[in-house]
Amino acid sequence: MFELPRDSQTEYLFHYTSIDTLINHILPTRQIRLSSFATVNDPKEYKTFILQPWRRDPNKHTETYSFLESEIWPEFKKRLKVMCLVAEPKKSSEELLNYNNRGFVNSPLWHHYADKGEGVCLVFNKANLIKAFKERFPLKSYHSPVAYKAIAAYQQTSLDWAQMDMDAIESIGIEEYVDMHIKNFHKPMFFNKAPEWAYENEYRFIVTSENEFEYLDIKGCLEGIVFGPRANFKNKGRALAIPGRRGFGNPMYKLDFRNCSPKIIYDWKE
Questions:
Q1: How far is CA 82 from the centre of its chain?
Q2: Are β-strands 120-125 and 147-148 bridged in parallel, bridged antiparallel, or unpaired?
Q3: Which residue, 18, 84, 83, is CA-closest to 225?
Q4: What are the Cα distances from residue 135, in Å, to 138, 189, 249?
Q5: What are the angstrom distances between the C-alpha of 147 and each of 115, 188, 202?
Q6: How does pLDDT run across 228-260, given as a tens digit for each residue?
Q7: Is residue 88 within 8 Å of 101, Cβ to Cβ?
Q8: Which one of 24, 80, 140, 236 has the largest count of C-beta atoms within 10 Å of its C-beta?
């Protein structure tokens, strides 16, 4: 049970999404989707990375940046699947009581990812979600908080993770090399965003896979759902009426604001 003001020990992760995604996909399937890295919202990430070709014998160095841009980097984006959640800082007693600084009270995230407040925020038990993730993806999977650090332009091609071992690519093939490179350099490559995104306090899960999407079973992980400040009460009814739900997603609360302060409506009625 997700006890908003009382539970100071349990760590939670949060996921903002639309009401249609909740009702048409997440609640009926009890799964959450990991999507292509190409769909992330930081231009620093979804734009082409500048990669540096490297060989043990410099005389064999014939590859160009355009080759890496057209052949190697697309394979990274194609194979990497990502699930983005929100962590929250350690909660003081005051914050537990008034909800300030909680993961489900982030106005920019409600606006950008949950239909401008008409959607929902899913509340996950962090330990249970990580356990489910590791069991579902025992290999080639990684999870961590995101760091927010700018990288100077002059450093781009000298970074360790930007060096592409062309000898290894020829030896083992692009797909296997990409998976190996992600294993060695996933933290600096895919768990770092520009500082202006720091308000998201993101916690990220990634998997390398040939599939277009991957899915994670969240049956024992979802602790509750918070409907947004502009949510329509009829959508709560739609969620409650999903066949075979059997309490999955409960409890369902409503976030509101009174004089700019967050307030949770536990018994949300029309």
A1: 6
A2: unpaired
A3: 18
A4: 6, 24, 22
A5: 26, 9, 8
A6: 999 999 999 999 999 888 889 899 999 999 888
A7: yes
A8: 80
As a whole number of angstroms, the distance between CA 206 and CA 77 comes to: 11
Residues 6+ apart with CB under 8 A from 256: 229, 262, 263, 264, 265
pLDDT at 143: 98
Look at the block and give the residue holding tokens 């939670």: 12
CA distances from 83 to 39, 63, 190, 213, 242 (A): 11, 33, 12, 11, 24
Whether 103 and 201 have beta carbons less than 8 Å apart is answered as yes
Torsions phi, psi of 15, nearest 5? -135, 120
* Amino acid at residue number 66: S
What CA–CA distance (Å, rounded) separates 124 from 83? 13
Half-sphere exposure at residue 13, Cβ-oriented, CA atoms within 13 angstroms: 22
User: What pLDDT, on the 0 to 100 scale, is given for residue 107?
Assistant: 93
Sequence-distant (6+) residues with CB within 8 A of 182 are: 76, 79, 80, 140, 142, 189, 190, 206, 208
Residues 34, 215 contacting (CB under 8 angstroms): yes
On the question of a cis peptide bond just before residue 251, with omega within 30 degrees of 0, the verdict is yes
In the numeric block, which tokens belong to residue 88? 């929250």
What predicted TM-score, i.e. pTM, was given to this entire model?
0.90
Q: Which residues does residue 164 pair with via DSSP β-bridges, in sequence order?
A: 53
49, 50, 69, 115 from 74: Cα distances, Å: 10, 12, 7, 30
- CA atoms of 7 and 175, how far apart (whole Å): 44
Query: Alpha-carbon distance 10 to 90, whole Å?
Result: 11
Max intra-chain CA distance, the chain: 74
Q: Which two tokens stand for residue 179?
A: 């998976």
Q: Confidence class of residue 16 from pLDDT cuts 50, 70 and 90? A: very high
